[in-house]
Design goal:
Elements: H1 4-8, H2 20-31, H3 37-44, H4 48-61, H5 78-90, H6 96-100, H7 109-117, E1 122-125, E2 127-129, H8 134-148, E3 160-169, E4 178-181, E5 192-194, E6 202-210, E7 213-214, E8 218-219, H9 233-243, E9 253-254
Parallel strand pairs: 2-5, 3-9
Antiparallel strand pairs: 1-4, 3-6, 6-7, 6-8
Helix pairs in contact: 2-4, 3-4
Length: 255
């Protein structure tokens, strides 16, 4: 036998009030014991208390109308809220003002924040990341998976030395940016802030770390014999001789 909701042909949208026809059908079903409150709540997509209150209101007041609610009514309908989320997903770098201008009613910053937060969309600081191509990214992934088994315990890191060089420059990279995203999208390729080295006064330094220690900070020397007078392989070799040889012990793995 088709459900009461299907028979009256009234589908209830999420969060919407019950219509007069739906409430009439609920009262009729309960008075004639055609269905239970639990089954009716499932059929009409609402809470069991809604079914119980509807029937109680009919018994006490012979009325199926809703009482005026306390507090200010919602300013935006479900369609407007969906529109805000759609614009935030399609344009993650838009500001609050840009999102507010796309919907009617000029919502405040707090209103937009609440609407998006319910869906897990929060305005977050864009992660800085060195731009790499797909081929290099794939090679790094393969490398990480290859050595993942070596780092399953803390003790396995005692024989490993990790090093890196860094450019200290006068001019900063791209300034801080904010975007609308989910917590799991921190490193999505179109939601990161590329860390691009600019041609300005800069100095390269080298250092290394291992479990329980660190090397000294080595200021790398430019190779004056190179084509542009910058840093070359010889600059890196000199840094290793100055910094690595002081801490390296036989049997250690230099990364």
């Amino acid at each position: 036998m088709p459900s009461i909701a299907i028979q009256i042909g009234a589908n209830r949208s999420q969060g919407a009030e019950l219509s007069a026809e739906q409430r009439t059908a609920i009262i009729y079903a309960l008075e004639n014991k055609l269905s239970s409150q639990v089954k009716l709540a499932k059929e009409f997509g609402c809470h069991r208390n809604t079914i119980a209150n509807t029937f109680k209101r009919w018994q006490e007041r012979n009325d199926i109308k809703s009482r005026p609610r306390s507090g200010r009514p919602p300013k935006f309908c479900p369609r407007s809220r969906r529109l805000v989320k759609t614009h935030a997903r399609r344009n993650p770098f838009w500001s609050y003002r840009a999102l507010a201008s796309r919907v009617t009613g000029t919502p405040s910053t707090d209103t937009i924040r609440r609407i998006l937060k319910r869906s897990g969309i929060v305005r977050r600081l864009v992660k800085r990341k060195i731009p790499i191509g797909r081929v290099l990214a794939f090679k790094r992934k393969v490398f990480a998976r290859r050595w993942r088994s070596e780092f399953h315990t803390i003790s396995s890191l005692r024989n490993w030395i990790f090093s890196d060089e860094c450019s200290v420059q006068r001019t900063s990279n791209n300034g801080p940016q904010w975007c609308w995203r989910l917590a799991s999208e921190a490193y999505r390729i179109d939601l990161v802030n590329p860390k691009i080295h600019v041609k300005d006064i800069s100095q390269m330094v080298w250092a290394a770390i291992w479990l329980g220690g660190r090397s000294k900070l080595v200021v790398m020397e430019r190779d004056k014999s190179s084509e542009r007078g910058g840093y070359s392989r010889w600059s890196y070799i000199d840094a290793l001789e100055e910094g690595l040889l002081l801490i390296y012990q036989p049997g250690m793995i230099f990364q």
